[in-house]
Amino acid sequence: MHEHRQKTKEKDKNYERVVLVGNPNVGKSVIFGLLTGKYVTVSNYPGTTVEVSSGNFSLEDRKFLLVDSPGVNNLIPMSEDEKVTRDIMLKERPSLVVHVADSKNLRRSLFLALQIAEMDLPVVLVLNMEDEARDRGIVTDMQKLKEILGIEVIAMIAPQRKGLKELRASILSPEKPAIRLRYTPLIEEYIEKISGLLPEANISKRSLAVMILSGDLSLREWLAANLSDDKIKDIERLRDECQLKSNDIIGSLIDRKRLDLAEGIAGQVVRHIPAETGRLFPFIGRISMHPVWGVPLLLFVLFLLYEFVGVLGGGTLVNFFEKVIFGKYLNPVAIKVVSLLIPFGFLQELLVGEYGLITVALTYSIAIILPITTTFFISFAVLEDSGYLPRLAIMTNRVFNFMGLNGKAVLPMVLGLGCGTMAVMTSRILETRRDRIITTFLLALAIPCSAQLGVILGMLGALSFTATLIWTGSIVTTLLVSGYLASKVVSGDRTDFFLEIPPIRKPDVMNVLIKTAGRVEWYLKEAVPLFLLGTFILFVLHKLNTLVLLERIAAPVVVNLLGLPEKTTEAFILGFLRRDYGAAGLFMMAGKGQLTPVQSVVSLVTITLFVPCLANFFMIVKEQGMKLALGIIAVVFPLAFIVGGLLNWILTVLQVKL
Length: 658
Description:
The structure is a single chain. With about 650 residues, the protein is an alpha/beta fold. It is about 65% helix and about 10% strand.
């Protein structure tokens, strides 16, 4: 492994290093994908748990290594993400910084741009999301902004690839910013004194001196590696001396000066015109965040999701792929070919038997899961591109406050509907460990990933809308009660909630297709191999008669408490390997008439609340440690069966018809 890293470092020396920098949610990742294509490496930044993406690209025979830094609001680090971004600039020797900004909020981006300019690095400023700014009636004078900053400024709509040609051209001939920010005479005096003690670095001594005067303690590690203890003491003495001579906090004075200049520049180059959005979209945007009127809209969205994913994806498309494509053509052909070419009964059974890799794994993953996940990915991309998801976060903020969570926790929850593993990693955006622990617990307990949710909706689509309401009510109630109790057990304070709201707009068809294609590709690469592995494990357990033993051991819980057939144990076992695989097993049992409607709903509630998949578990271990991960499993596992058993009892006693 060490030898591989050394070779990678030697290879990287031949590439010019380009760093993508910007505030959170400005589209850096889209631009990163457009420049690098598919050749991407994701790894933890040394000494941290923060993952950084890097990839290669070439322009006119020049080779570049592009690094996508974490989104930040400040380069005076207040979080691990901000420290990593600052360290990339300080330690990685970038030949160019591509600063991606939000066209709708130039003031915020300029605050960061002034800090980058102070580092004296070549910069290209990309004003992304120009279409959203235009929808809001925000127009930026690009030429004037270029003159003020002294660098290339490019207007871009990344999902539509608009501005990409200009960005590629500007990367070949970047310029250093001409703008210079002057602070108070006292601060300038000590900037000069501290700069005189600093060694040469990849960024300007002036920017390092300003960081030190701002109280950036995270720089001490770099200072210790590059200066003697005596010089560090002299620098800290000058920092303290400067503060003693000032009536205000030096860091606040520096920030205020930057903010004033950012506001002044924005005032010169930004003008507002009447937004040409009509009345419908602004009206939808307003009611979607209303605590009362937003609820009917949410229910309508959920109903459309149910019809599109559950009925069309899980019903019509699955029937076609499973019964026609695989049932009439692929599986019969596979059985004949394997029987003719492979004389060994053991291998025949492995490939096309009761737990065959072809007849079960590929049928599950392609015929059943793929149509459902594809329709769900389309729906999720539409919700993302329309601007509805942030509004959903605002509308449900009070509900999450009931669980003691910062409103930002809504974002990992929403992302959890895409992939729980990525959502756990995204919980880093929460400021306190308390919020991260509660959010991680709730993600593991009650938030189904897209693949699992797609299968669940497909299964519910074959039942009734009442069944869907019972499943939804059970999961939401468990989420609220568990979150409330967790907020009482986990100590710590809440933090404030700030979220920028994009305009409601008509989803761009090409953008939706690109997102869907990328997610389907991810599913085929990541999920299908796990289906093959899961089926192989099931096959081995079956051949060793271990599966029957496990079914007998679990019978008191599965049969007596949940009221389910013993065979359901298989779905729960494999649900830990991959959640949607477990749900797909239930889907097949229901399709064969092995589950009654009540049993279907009970099994779906239980497997939704069941332990997170293996990848999710490892991510929890990575983010929170093994002790906490095992603690979460110890709570989630019995709680899933308790809730499932209680639901079974209620539906049986009330004799609910589904």
